[in-house]
Amino acid sequence: MTPPREHGAAAAHVADRIREAIIRGEYPPGARIRQEELALESGASRVPVREALRMLEAEGLVTLVANTGAWVSSLSLGECQEIYRVRERVEPLLLRMSGPSLDEPTLQRLDELAAQMADSDDSETFLELDRSFHLLTYTGTQTVVLTELVHRLWNRTQAYRRVYTGLMDARARRTVHDEHRLIVGALRDHDIDAAESLLAGHIRRTRRQLASHPEVFAAREESS
């Protein structure tokens, strides 16, 4: 019999793989997740696979139906809006806690990420760089719950940001890039009030623009 500790380590490993696949879009909202295939791909037994899916269910990424199976969780427009409203409040707070401790090499890396986003026309590249950019701004502090909460909120909405990113026009992209540069500038100037305000507006604008594209959510609901 496999020791519980080994089951736990295997479950965490499988959960990491599924989580990353969901974030990358390999498993879109509403997609069926088959435990047998996961067990074969990961070389794990079904016990850690089931535990991994329960871990992801607790994060809101997976929906488990008793005696039926597992699916990638979907969000309605209203649910996505609620998550974004939470992000509007908690991420500026996290930035306020983190910003004063960001050193010059980190600020330079943020400048590089902002420039790379502006130079790329590929949606997947933008999503990866945008995620790296924002999460890097939060690395100047250690928190008990806030950092983990922000990561989970990002993960819950990633699929819808992916679809929306493909719908952005040139004007919307320019606005996003300008906001990134302004946030870095405020952090470099130690103007945390401005950085906090810019970030809140950045998230709010995305929420409102997502609301103007209800078809993004209707398409997901129809496929689930």
What labels would you give this structure?
Four Helix Bundle (Hemerythrin (Met), subunit A), single chain, Tscrpt_reg_HTH_GntR, transcription, Arc Repressor Mutant, subunit A, 2 domains, transcription regulation, GntR_C, GntR family transcriptional regulator, mainly alpha, globular, 224 residues
Largest sheet: 3 strands, antiparallel
Q: State the shape.
A: globular
Spans of at least 5 consecutive residues with low confidence: none
Task: Indicate the proportion of strand residues.
Answer: under 5%
- Tell me the CATH superfamily of the largest domain: GntR ligand-binding domain-like
Helix proportion range: over 70%
Gyration radius from CA atoms, angstroms: 19 Å
Tell me the number of structural domains: 2
CATH class of the largest domain: Mainly Alpha
| Number of DSSP strand runs | 3
Strand order, main sheet: write it out. 1-3-2
Q: Name the CATH architecture of the largest domain.
A: Up-down Bundle
Mean pLDDT: 91
Distance between the amino and carboxyl termini: 37 Å
Count, helices: 10
Oligomer: single chain
Derived from helix and strand composition plus strand pairing, the structural class reads: mainly alpha
CATH T-level topology of the largest domain: Four Helix Bundle (Hemerythrin (Met), subunit A)
What series of H and E elements makes up the topology? HEHHEEHHHHHHH
